[in-house]
Amino acid sequence: xxxxxxxxxxxxxxxxxxxxxxxxxxxxxxxxxxxxxxxxxxxxxxxxxxxxxxxxxxxxxxxxxxxxxxxxxxxxxxxxxxxxxxxxxxxxxxxxxxxxxxxxxxxxxxxxxxxxxxxxxxxxxxxxxxxxxxxxxxxxxxxxxxxxxxxxxxxxxxxxxxxxxxxxxxxxxxxxxxxxxxxxxxxxxxxxxxxxxxxxxxxxxxxxxxxxxxxxxxxxxxxxxxxxxxxxxxxxxxxxxxxxxxxxxxxxxxxxxxxxxxxxxxxxxxxxxxxxxxxxxxxxxxxxxxxxxxxxxxxxxxxxxxxxxxxxxxxxxxxxxxxxxxxxxxxxxxxxxxxxxxxxxxxxxxxxxxxxxxxxxxxxxxxxxxxxxxxxxxxxxxxxxxxxxxxxxxxxxxxxxxxxxxxxxxxxxxxxxxxxxxxxxxxxxxxxxxxxxxxxxxxxxxxxxxxxxxxxxxxxxxxxxxxxxxx
Length: 471
Description:
Blueprint lengths: L1 H64 L23 H18 L3 H8 L6 H9 L14 H7 L16 H7 L3 E2 L7 E7 L23 E7 L1 E10 L7 H24 L20 E4 L5 H16 L6 E5 L1 H9 L1 E2 L2 E2 L2 H7 L1 E2 L2 E5 L8 E5 L3 E5 L3 E5 L3 E4 L13 E2 L19 E2 L3 E4 L5 E14 L5 E5 L4
Parallel strand pairs: 1-12, 5-19, 6-10
Antiparallel strand pairs: 2-3, 4-18, 6-11, 7-8, 9-10, 11-19, 12-18, 13-18, 14-17, 15-16
Helix pairs in contact: 2-3, 2-4, 2-7, 9-10
C-alpha cells in the first residue's frame, strides 16, 4: 500500500515539473518573439527614416563643398594722434600783434585771442611761437651796440615765413630756386668763403713715371652785414570790432605785402648801391645790361639769348629768368608760323629754353632779369612786432617822386643831425611840413614792424638785365 502511494506521489511531482518546464519554455519563446518583434519594428522605422537621413547627409556634403563667405567685423583701429603743425613765423607774429591789439582795446586776455586763432593740440607750436613774439614795451630802446642787450636781440630763422609768398615774391622765388641761406646765428656780420669756378684745380692725365702737376686753387670770401628794415603803421581802435581771425589776417597782409613789395623793389633796382652798414646793394647794381632789341620774334629771341649767354658764359649752376606776369602771358601767346613757341614749355614746366622762370607782379614792366640763384646769398629773420597805444608820431609824406612830392628832410640849422632822421622836435622845420600825432589822443594803436635782412653776391658776373623791354 505504501509503495503505491510513493509511486503516485512521484508521478504527481514529475507531472508538476514538466508543467513548470513547459511554462518556462513558453515564456522564453514569448520573450524571443517580443524581442524579434521590437527589432523588426525598429528596423522598419529606420527603413522609413533612411531616405530622409540620406538626403540630409547629401545636403550637408553640398554645403560643405561650396564656397562660404565669412564676414568678420574687426574693431576700429585706434585714432591716430594728430600731428603738431609746423608754425608759420609770419602768422604767429600777426596773431601776437592781434592779441596785443585786442588786449589794449577790449581788455581781452592775449591767451584767449591766440587760442581762438590757433585752436586744438595740433597748433600747440603755433601758440607757443605767438606767445614768444608778444614783445613788451621799453622806455629805453635796446641797440645791437649795447652789450647788455645783444644776447636778447639776436634771432635766427630759416626764411620759413617766405614760403607762402614764393609764387608772388622775387626774393621767395630765388630762395626756392637755390639761393644760399646765410647762417647768421648771433653774428652782426658774416664772412662766407666761396671757390673760384674757373677750373684752376682741374686734374690732368699723367704718364707712368711722369710728375703730377701742381695747381693753385683760389678761395674767395664775401662779408655780409646784418641790416634792419622797419616801419610804423597806425590802426584805429574801431578795428577791434572786427572778429579775431580777420584782425590777424589784416595785420598779416599789411606786413607781408608791404615788406615783400619793398624788398623785391630794392633787389630789382640796379641803381641802389650799398650804404655803409645801413643797407646792402641791389644784386643787380653794376650788372651788365643793354636795351631791348625790339618787339618782333627775332628781337625777342635775340634779347633772351643775350641774357642767357651772359650768365651761361660763367658756368652757372642754377640760372633763372625774372619777369612780370604780363610779359610771361604775352610770351605764352606769341605765335610764329602758326605755332605758339613758348606756351607748352611755360605751362608745363614754367621754363623758357630750359631755364626756370620767377614771375612776380613786383618786377618792373620794362625790365627782364637773369641771375644764377646759386651765387645769391640771403638771410631774412622773422619779424619783430610791437604795438602801443601811447606814442607820439611824426607823420610826413615819404613817397617822394611817386606822387610828385619831395622827400622829407630837415632844414639845416648848422646842428649835427642824422641824415634823413626826423625827431618830434624837428617837425616844425621839415620840408615838406610834418605833423605830430598822439595815438592815445586819437584812440589808435601804433604797430612797429622790424625785420633784419642781409644778402649779397658770390660772383658779380652771374647777373644781367634788359631795359626798355616792350615785347
